[in-house]
Amino acid sequence: MRLVIVFISACLVFSACARFKSKEKNSAANDFTPIVRLAETSSGRVATANSNFAVLTFPFGNVPANGQELNVYRNGKKVGELRVTGPQRDINTVADIVSGEAQVNDEVRPD
């Protein structure tokens, strides 16, 4: 008889502990809210370039509008200026080289 009482008591204790842990996990899972932030700066890269124009690639949603002026940076130093002329397709757009130069993988951003 004692064995039955000890067994029932143990089952009650373990079930209470398991119930407490499951509530703890569920509340932690419900409190998690993912934070999504868009890039604050719309910097892109030069995909191809020649002496007159460059094809630029930007992150999704950050492609600049036609007429916007951009600066070209190589190793952190400004090496040129561009003016977006289009056409735009997906994440790519075309820009005229106003001054300086542009090479593949140069960073492009408005300032």
What would your notes on this structure say?
The model has no long low-confidence stretch (mean pLDDT 82). A six-stranded antiparallel β-barrel has the order 1-2-5-4-3-6. The N and C termini lie far apart (83 Å). β1 (44-49) and β2 form a beta hairpin. Helices cover 27% and strands 38% of the residues. The chain is of the alpha+beta class and 111 residues long. The chain has a domain at 44-109: Beta Barrel (Thrombin, subunit H), CATH 2.40.10.
CATH fold category name of the domain at 44-109: Thrombin, subunit H
Which shape, going by the Cα principal axes? Answer: rod-shaped
Count every helix, treating DSSP H or I runs of 4 or more residues as helices. 1
Question: Taking all residues together, what is the mean pLDDT?
Answer: 82
Describe the strand arrangement of the main beta sheet, using strand numbers: 1-2-5-4-3-6
CATH class of the domain at 44-109: Mainly Beta
The CATH level-2 architecture of the domain at 44-109 is identified as Beta Barrel
Helix content: 25-40%
Distance separating the two termini: 83 Å
Strand content: 35-45%
Helix-strand category? alpha+beta
Residue windows where pLDDT falls under 50 for at least 5 positions: none
Number of E-type strands: 6
What is the helix/strand order? HEEEEEE
Gyration radius from CA atoms, angstroms: 30 Å
The biggest sheet, with number of strands, parallel, antiparallel or mixed sense and barrel status, is: 6 strands, antiparallel, barrel
Oligomer: single chain
